[in-house]
């Protein structure tokens, strides 16, 4: 059975990390939730650290 996990399309703006849901919109901010399959990010990879490092540097 195919899972249909979606991710908040606005999580980069609205949240610190991807918000996953089975619904069609984000339970936290109400933005559209999009299929997470083609997502350009992995919640477990180093992107989060990278973004945090960038933020720190751009201060
Ligand atoms: Zn959201």
TrEMBL record:
An example Gene Ontology CC term for this record: ribonucleoprotein complex
GO terms (BP aspect): pseudouridine synthesis; rRNA processing
One Pfam family in the UniProt entry: Nop10p
Keywords: Ribonucleoprotein, Ribosome biogenesis, rRNA processing
Key word rRNA processing present: yes
Disordered: region residues: 35-59
Endpoints of the signal sequence: none
MF annotations from Gene Ontology: snoRNA binding
UniProt cross-references to SUPFAM superfamilies, sorted A to Z: Nop10-like SnoRNP
Protein family (similarity comment): Belongs to the NOP10 family.
NCBIfam families: PRK13130.1
Function: Involved in ribosome biogenesis; more specifically in 18S rRNA pseudouridylation and in cleavage of pre-rRNA.
HAMAP family: Nop10
Name used for this protein in its record: Ribosome biogenesis protein Nop10
Organism from which the protein derives: Natronococcus pandeyae
Lineage: Archaea, Methanobacteriati, Methanobacteriota, Stenosarchaea group, Halobacteria
């Amino acid at each position: 059975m195919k899972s249909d996990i979606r991710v908040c399309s606005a999580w980069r703006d609205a949240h610190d990390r991807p918000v996953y849901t089975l619904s069609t919109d984000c339970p936290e901010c109400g933005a559209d939730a999009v299929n997470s399959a083609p997502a350009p990010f992995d919640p477990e990879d180093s992107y989060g650290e990278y973004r945090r490092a960038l933020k720190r540097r751009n201060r």
